[in-house]
Amino acid sequence: MIQIVERGAARAGGLAKLAFALGIRHQAFYSWKRVPAERVLAFERLTGISRHEQRPDLFGPPPDVAAGHIGAGPAASQAGAGHPSTGARK
After folding, report:
1. DSSP letter at 71?
2. DSSP state of 1
3. HSE-up (13 A, CA, CB side) for residue 58
4. Which of 57, 81, 36 is nearest to 28 (CA)?
5. How far apart, in whole angstroms, are the C-alpha atoms of residue 16 and residue 72?
6. 65 or 3, which is more confident
7. Which among 18, 49, 84, 88 is most buried, taking Cβ atoms within 10 Å?
8. What are the Cα distances from residue 50, in Å, to 40, 61, 85?
């Protein structure tokens, strides 16, 4: 069984519960080489594991990584840019 399914099952309360919620038999997980495209969104909803982590081949890297904003929040990009909250307005 692939690691992402093991992690997802742990988050969902077990393999049987995850399979039931996905509407499949738990044995199906053993044939997965990766999460099938038609199951990605439901798997994400049930486990909290991002679609980007499950299938980067379909969804690419997470948006923060793709935009190059790793570790930088919106406040960092606006600091001192004349934003009203900085008091820079006259």
Report:
1. T
2. -
3. 14
4. 36
5. 39
6. 3
7. 18
8. 9, 10, 33
Which tokens in the block code for residue 69?
């904003």
pTM tops 0.85: no
User: What is the rounded distance in angstroms from the CA atom of residue 11 to the CA atom of residue 18?
Assistant: 9
Contact 14, 52 (CB under 8 A): no
Between helix 15-22 and helix 40-47 the angle, nearest 10°, is: 130
Q: What is the pLDDT of residues 56-65, one digit of tens each?
A: 999 999 888 6
Per-residue pLDDT tens digits for 65-85? 666 655 544 444 444 444 444
How many CB atoms within 10 Å of residue 11? 13
Q: Is the pLDDT of residue 24 over 50?
A: yes
Write out the two tokens for 82: 């004349």
